Structures are given as C-alpha cells and as structure tokens.
TrEMBL record:
Pathway: Lipid metabolism; butanoate metabolism. CoA binds at G219, I220, G221, A222, M223, I319, G342. InterPro entries: AcetylCoA_hyd_C (IPR026888), AcetylCoA_hyd_C_sf (IPR038460), ActCoA_hydro (IPR046433), ActCoA_hydro_N (IPR003702), Butryl-CoA_acetate_CoA_Tfrase (IPR023990), NagB/RpiA_transferase-like (IPR037171). Coenzyme A-transferase that converts butyrate to butyryl-CoA. Transmembrane segments: none annotated. GO terms for biological process: acetate metabolic process; acetyl-CoA metabolic process; butyrate metabolic process. GO terms for molecular function: acetate CoA-transferase activity. Its EC number is 2.8.3.-. This is Probable butyrate:acetyl-CoA coenzyme A-transferase. Residues 5-186 form the Acetyl-CoA hydrolase/transferase N-terminal domain. It comes from Candidatus Syntrophocurvum alkaliphilum. GO terms for cellular component: cytoplasm. The keyword Membrane does not apply.
C-alpha cells in the first residue's frame, strides 16, 4: 500500500475517531501550542457516554472543552505536567491537577509504564512524500507517549511549522491509527509581557555574567525577555543555544548576529530546544530552518548533556527565595502557579558545565492583594510553598539590588548574601529572623 493510500484508509471524521476513547481510559493531549482544540471539542461531545476519563497534557494554553462541559468532573479528570495560565485558573476552581515532574525524566515515565496511555490525541503537519508527519513545535515527551499509547489519533493542521531535528521530530503514517483533517487554525501566540524598570535592572546585572561563547538558556517571562533584548543589542559574540523553550527573543538575538553556536562543544551551530511558544515571528523562523534542532526533553534537559557545553548560562525566574537559599518557582503558598519544569535541570546542569552559571532571577518585592509591598526574599518559604531548587543545588540568586552566589556558603553566609540583595525596607526584619533561626553571626555586616 502506498503512503497516500494508507493515509486515506485512516482518514475519518473527528467524531468517528474519538469513538476509540472508552470509560476509564487515559487520554494524552499534545503539548503546549500543539494541543488540539479540534480533537478536544470532539471528545467533549461524548461526555454523557464516558466516565472517569483521565486527560493528561503539558501546559495546554486554552481551557479544554472537556473541562468546561463537566465542572463536576464526573466524566473527565484533567491533569497538567506544567501549568499554563489556563490551567492555573482551573486549578483555583479545583478543576485541574498538577503532576510533579523533573522535566528531563518525563519520557521515562511512559517508557517504564508509570503513565499508561490508552489514546494519544496529537496535532501534526501534513504528511510528506516519505509518509512522515512532523510534530511541529513540541517534541519534549510527545514521541514517548505516542510510543506508549494503544491508539494514536492525529489532527493534521496546515498552519504548523515543520521543525527539524534533533531526533524523534516526526511520526510515520504507519504509527497512527486515525487521521483527522482539522480546521487549520493558526497556532496560539503568546502575548507580549510588559517589561518593568526592575526587569531591566535585573537584566543589566545578568548581562555582567555573560561572556562571548556562552551557551544560554532562557526561561519564560518578562525578565528573560528583557535579557534577550539586551543581548540582541549588545556586542556579545558567538553565543550558543541549548534550552528547553525557544521564544521570540532567540530570533532577535540570532538576527542581530549574537547567536552562531560556533563555540559549542556539542550540537555545534545548532539552536537546541524541546518546545517553542511565541508569536508568528518565531513560528515562521522555525519552519524548515536547519539552524534549529528540536529534541525530546530527555536530551535537552538532561543535566549531563547540558554540562557538555562550556559556559552554560541558565536564566530563570522564581516566586520567592528563603534565607537558606531554597528557591520556590511553583507556588504562592499552597496556590499552585507553575511547575518545576526544566529549572532544576538547568540549574544543576549549568554547574556541570565548565565555567557555567545557573541564575535564579526575581524582583526583590511584589505587591500583595491589598496593595502592600511584600519581600520576595523571605526567612523561610511561605507555608505550602514548593521547593523548586534545593539549597544544595541553587547557584546564583539575582535581584535588582545585586547577586548572591551560594555555592560553598554556610547558612550564615547565605543569609548575609541574600539579605544584601533584599529590598532595603526589609533587611532589618530579615536580620532579626535570621538571628532567631541561628543563621546569623554578630560580625555579619551588610554592604
């Protein structure tokens, strides 16, 4: 049978394909902007026929129809490996559950059978002449859950960029059970986040840590965007990219001539990533671009792979940091905000890199619900706060007031370094708390 004939033999309507889902099944949606609203809508139509269907996704950027039609969770139970803004809103209502994850381990959960998948719902580019569909902008654990799934249902969407590997960036028609031709709706674009003066102040301090030939990883948010903008306007040379997430600022840095990858030790001259989210500028840049290489996350985020490149500079955000050096990037107390994601992978991996640096960046304060100013450097994490980077792993912490390098520092030295970069309004209070915690010496002096 020719590939085209096999394609046509598997081509069905969305409603016909979704009949494959049975009560009690686990259904894995695509990741990030590759989650299919089209297949989700079709599954939602079967609500009254199904019970206890467990849905798993990764940072789905929209509120699924399956959740909207079943607020009592009698038919669908929704779970996310790493929260989007949509998942966060649903979690606040008790309609979404987080699955704890150290990101580079994700494919092994499927391979070892810890997460059995009955049906995979994915979104792909059109088939090429060799019978392959491309996974588009998300490759992190998609190949693993498709391998694990008993049934694979694919929506074909002509708007998806063809993202070159790397490896496992494609799936063959022979590995797919049902094919659905979707509505070709364009990929969701991330909105521009406003960059504050504090973001720029922190970014300037980060720029001091960057060198020619550094291999960079940027997290998501306004502060990494500010850093990317400054890099694009700088005179830095031959930067490399080994990251989990590719965003618009990498396009700006590449087009400004800052990124060449020529000094990388592995994947030389390639911008390595595992998923991408951004604007159409990014998606158009990725389409069939051999400069970019998309890999599964057990490669991109493996700390021992990360460490093979020199001068890895990993730049990430946090919600708060305590005086022991523990960084919380996932919750505000018990309110879930995000997930571990790749932050721990890259902070750990950067230390394995020759001359590497793992930077946790945050503003020194935030504004509370009642308009009060709250320190983000705290004696201890807010009760219920999740430790993303343990004190034994955390490397650098940066606020607009300076940098604290924590490696090799005792508890009192950490307390001093972190209080030095707290907002001045809170330093005396933090010293008193450090004294109560027995992590302050009388001879300590703040700069």
């Amino acid at each position: 049978m020719s590939y085209l004939a096999e394609y046509k033999s598997k081509l069905v309507s969305a409603n016909e394909a979704l009949k494959a889902v049975k009560s009690g099944d686990t259904v894995n949606y695509g990741e990030f902007v590759m989650a299919s609203h089209f297949l989700d809508w079709a599954l939602a139509q079967r609500k009254d026929e199904l019970n206890d269907v467990k849905i798993i996704t990764t940072t789905c950027p929209f509120i699924p129809k399956t959740v909207e039609v079943d607020p009592e969770q009698e038919h669908f139970i929704y779970n996310d490996w790493h929260f989007s803004g949509a998942s966060r809103k649903l979690h606040d209502k008790g309609l979404c559950f987080y699955i704890p994850l150290t990101y580079h381990e994700a494919p092994s959960f499927y391979e070892r059978g810890y997460v059995p998948v009955d049906v995979a719902l994915i979104k792909l580019t059109p088939m090429d002449k060799q019978g392959f569909f491309n996974h588009g902008t998300s490759n992190s654990m998609t190949p693993a859950f498709c391998d694990s799934a008993k049934i694979v249902i694919a929506e074909v969407n002509e708007s998806i960029p063809k993202c070159l590997g790397g490896n496992r960036e494609s799936i063959h028609v022979s590995e797919i059970d049902y094919i659905v031709e979707g509505d070709n709706k364009p990929l969701i674009q991330l909105p521009d986040l406003p960059i504050t003066d504090v973001d720029n102040q922190v970014a300037e301090l980060v720029m001091e840590e960057l060198e020619d030939g550094a291999c960079i990883q940027l997290g998501i948010g306004a502060m990494p965007n500010a850093i990317g903008s400054m890099i694009a306007k700088s005179d830095l040379k031959d930067l490399g990219v080994h990251t989990e997430m590719l965003v618009d600022s990498y396009v700006d840095m590449y087009e400004a001539g800052r990124i060449t990858g020529r000094r990388k030790q592995i994947d030389k001259c390639k911008m390595v990533y595992t998923f991408a989210m951004g604007s159409n500028k990014l998606y158009e840049f990725l389409d069939e671009n051999p400069v970019c290489a998309i890999f599964p996350v057990n490669y991109t985020n493996n700390p021992f792979v990360i460490g093979q490149n020199d001068k890895v500079t990993a730049i990430n955000n946090a919600i708060e940091v305590d005086l022991y050096g523990q960084a919380c990037s996932e919750s505000s107390g018990v309110r879930h905000i995000s997930g571990t994601g790749g932050q721990l992978d890259f902070i750990f991996g950067s230390y394995k890199s020759q001359a590497g640096k793992g930077l946790v960046c945050l503003s020194s304060t935030t504004t509370g619900k009642n308009g009060e100013t709250i320190s983000r450097i705290k004696p201890t994490l807010t009760p219920g706060g999740i430790v993303t980077d343990p004190r034994s792993i955390n490397f650098y912490v940066i606020t607009e007031y300076g940098k604290a390098m924590l490696k090799g520092k005792s508890t009192w030295q950490r307390a001093e370094a972190l209080i030095n970069i707290a907002h001045p309004q809170f330093r005396d209070e933090l010293i008193k708390e450090a004294q109560k915690m027995k992590i302050w010496r009388k001879s300590n002096k703040l700069v």
